[in-house]
């Protein structure tokens, strides 16, 4: 609400602190100062809800308190716990293996500790021979004297078994005479000899790439000599290893890692998992993957230890990096799937489309012919969402948009030719509900001189003109930002609070949405809902806004388009948002205002890894719509209405081709149209199965009684059954289904969707009708829709 007061500065400060008022403006009347405040009134619900900004997060096993991180002794001084600090921009840095970092690592140095064992290390006479292989070339030294019965000082160190050596290195002091160093192979044949003299003292003397298997190394001299260290790398070379101890055995199937090793540093990287640390499951990773990679194990695995083993190129001072590690069970970062719920909206009322002013025709939609613009897309859409650029309304965010002037035909503050009424009225005439996404990110934060007052005024003027309470009722919903991720969290929260308050000051009916955010990953703070929406702000919000696309990361870290049921698909992120909603705003609906797939079409290429085939776009679109309907969302809005004349991601996600193609209908358009022809007036009822083998859904009349029913009752209340195999189209697998229908229920007609411009074919029904009819059908990734008929047997309760 607005409050105008005449007060002294001290009194104003007291009011501000008590009621947390925000000064919107100051004016003078009769020489007195008046301040206009925005009072954000908190409405306390009857039942208190404890706000949890992180309610959507599924905690990684690596983020629990008992987790410890251990590194190989050749590692550097960086903090290993950087890999579990929930920050992709901090990292553990290994030490350099070469030229000498490996010496103290008993897992790498083949000679480490061998002179602790008299069986492997023989010496003529030495009081401290163990120091020759103690891994410390800097501060310890073994002195080798001639034997009491011999004039020769001699040291022989044998390997437990002959080894091919990639790198052999020796430090010593040879001030009393020449020392002969010899290598012997497995046949006890001397293969290499080097004479070490006084000039070699204190130096690191090294041999590389020894091609034969070395059995032992021998030093002998007629005089005393000293060995500071003998060390060698075997054929496996330099390895840097980091191991996480989860503290408890966990069930693991998904590991997310940002493991880029650095440029040209590692030849291989192995991810290893073990329950007890003695036997390991190993998976090869790409050490050159720059982006984070999600690795899904072939099966759910018991594990306590997670290790990353880098195989380094044999270069001096070479180091590798590990940035962040997370792990989850079979449900991944998304958590357990939300149980399906009967839908409250028909399939036709669920589906909408994202559009723009003029629908790509560069003129008002009111000027278009029937079958163009809104009257083309209303065949598959019940609502349309417009990207309403604020800089079309105002030259500066602090300006008045002048909608009343616009309504009189004199344009907005920014565009003298613009009349949104003309455009939105054409959409409404085409029976499309209008959702306006106000995009203001073209204005830098610094352009807002008076954020709270300007945002409040814009929201008020928008609702006063377009809303139902005081305006022309052309807009049903308004979003405070599309993806306003470039604005700081605190700045956006103030903007959302003020703009939504302005809207609500004149219209309590128009639906108000925040920008689209995600609820599954705090490290992506720019689009994380937990930092953008809080309890006081939520009072003016009526719908949760969400975008979801279906991507997974590849072996190289590249993002790829994938089918919506893939367990690692980002399409599953809706689960986290629904969980967040259920905790914080349980009465608020969720709208998925962007979703879809990119695909090539004719001459309009799609070359990015996120692209799928045009057939896959259509089939995944169908399957995605069905899955969204079972998740009890209230709207789903496909992105985009048409392909666009650009060359980046999301340019090929259209229901139709671009304007240059004449907006030719693509297979995904035909698929949605046919699905709505069958199911448009019906509701999702139940999911009979959701497994790796098959998804089976039921559609029919609205379910009013949501108490549990057995499968027979559910099937007898359904008009349609739709089923498919939840896999990628290119996998091409099939699963035979033998389904026994309850007595009185019969499949009468079936179609299989094709994902082509001929959107379906008749599916033959192999059906044995007896007391209970058995249907035989091959389930593939192409959905089959079966129409059911029911003869009277007994009343069906709940439908």
TrEMBL record:
> What InterPro entries does the database record attribute to this sequence?
GH (IPR017853), Glycosyl_Hydrolase_39 (IPR051923)
Gene Ontology MF, one = hydrolase activity, hydrolyzing O-glycosyl compounds
Highest taxon listed in the record's lineage:
Eukaryota
State the protein's name: Uncharacterized protein
Query: What is the native source organism of this protein?
Result: Magallana gigas (Pacific oyster)
